[in-house]
Specification:
The protein is mainly α. Helix content is 52%, strand content 2%. The protein has a two-stranded antiparallel sheet with strand order 1-2. Helix 11 crosses helix 13. The radius of gyration is 24 Å and the shape is globular.
């Protein structure tokens, strides 16, 4: 459900707010909310009786005062970093200060060294907000985190799978803005550091759950949809170098660490990925980013792909630049969102690529 709508049984509150904004009266009504009700947004304006004020976070000095009142210790830079990481939110600063007291001997430095922003009460607050989002709102939040920088509407339209209309996308972005979960910049939309850290953990866990699916011999025909693999790339081969570096360090490597811990070795992880690749072939229809993601993970695991058969597959966002394409079956693949060596080393490889069909699913 997009922001501004009311749960069943609470619709009359919308009528009350509309009347408060439209009818002349001598009262002054102050409403605080994490998101702007639709009736308020329609009636609001700088020159109108109804006004909306977006409350920003505390500045460094005010945030530092809260931390000092909680008796946590740190340098001036450490205080500023903590205030910045939690966007100057007084409640979150009090929650993190309490944890620093309980777990890190009142030391901000010890807490920062753990590099873990999301925990306990903070996670519960963010879970409540995230779980209230519509499916498309959640998807946009995932995409903004995967990109790791400002993302334009055009980029989102090109990348979101399954595709959505521009009108629906704009409506969703507006809803997320009213929920104070994304921010508008000149180049597009982005997230605060805290929100990105929270969504990063969710992305890694969701990919992990998809990739640790186990084949059940009792129900051999069962094949999950692997929706996370289909809908998102954990690594974008066509992105800028800075985005690729961010995705590798923040998403790919933590995911690989979890997978190796589960399956004991890179080779065992590769065996699991190959099983999923085989099962994905059973899914009827386009599989989005799934096959490209699996190939990228195999490459990051340094698995030898000589003799691999990826024929007929959509290899979106696959990085093939380190592979010998002569020794891999890419017949009739969709390579429109993939990259390979800028300078092909042999005439045979050049001919091979000319003979490979470039399709768009």
């Amino acid at each position: 459900m997009l922001t501004g709508n009311y749960r069943n049984g609470y619709e009359e509150y919308g009528q009350l707010l509309r009347q408060l904004g439209e009818i002349n009266h001598q009262s002054c009504i102050l409403i605080t909310s994490r998101e702007t009700p639709q009736k308020i947004a329609v009636l609001a304006g700088n020159l109108l009786p109804v006004r909306v004020f977006n409350l920003k976070g505390l500045d460094s000095q005010a945030g530092e005062e809260i931390l000092k009142l909680k008796q946590v210790k740190g340098s001036s830079l450490e205080y500023k970093k903590l205030v910045r990481d939690y966007s100057g939110n007084p409640l979150l600063l009090k929650l993190v200060a309490t944890s620093i007291q309980d777990l890190f001997n009142n030391s901000i430095a010890e807490f920062i060294s753990e590099n873990h922003l999301i925990f306990n009460g903070i996670k519960a607050i963010l879970d409540q907000q995230f779980n209230h989002l519509s499916d498309l709102e959640q998807k946009i939040m995932y995409w903004l985190t995967i990109e790791g920088q400002s993302v334009s509407v055009k980029q989102l339209i090109e990348n979101v799978f399954p595709p959505v209309s521009e009108a629906l996308l704009l409506e969703t972005l507006e809803s997320l803005q009213r929920r104070s979960l994304i921010e508008k910049e000149n180049l597009g939309f982005t997230q605060t550091h805290l929100i990105r850290a929270y969504i990063t953990e969710k992305i890694i866990e969701d990919f992990y759950q998809d990739l640790t699916w186990e084949y059940d011999k009792k129900t051999p025909r069962y094949c999950p949809l692997f929706l996370i693999l289909q809908n998102y790339p954990i690594f974008q081969a066509t992105a800028t170098d800075s985005v690729r570096e961010y995705q590798n360090s923040s998403l790919v490597q933590p995911l690989i660490q979890k997978l190796v811990a589960r399956y004991n070795s890179p080779e065992d992880v590769a065996e699991q990925l190959n099983i999923i690749l085989i099962k994905l072939r059973e899914i009827q229809g386009p599989c989005g980013y799934a096959f490209g993601t699996l190939i990228n993970l195999l490459c990051f695991l340094n698995i030898d792909l000589v003799g691999a058969d990826f024929s007929e597959l959509p290899l979106w966002e696959a990085d093939l630049s380190s592979l010998n394409l002569e020794q891999i079956n890419l017949k009739n693949c969709d390579l429109t969102k993939s990259i390979f060596r800028e300078k092909l080393e042999t005439n045979r490889e050049t001919r091979f690529l000319r003979e490979t069909r470039f399709l768009r699913c």
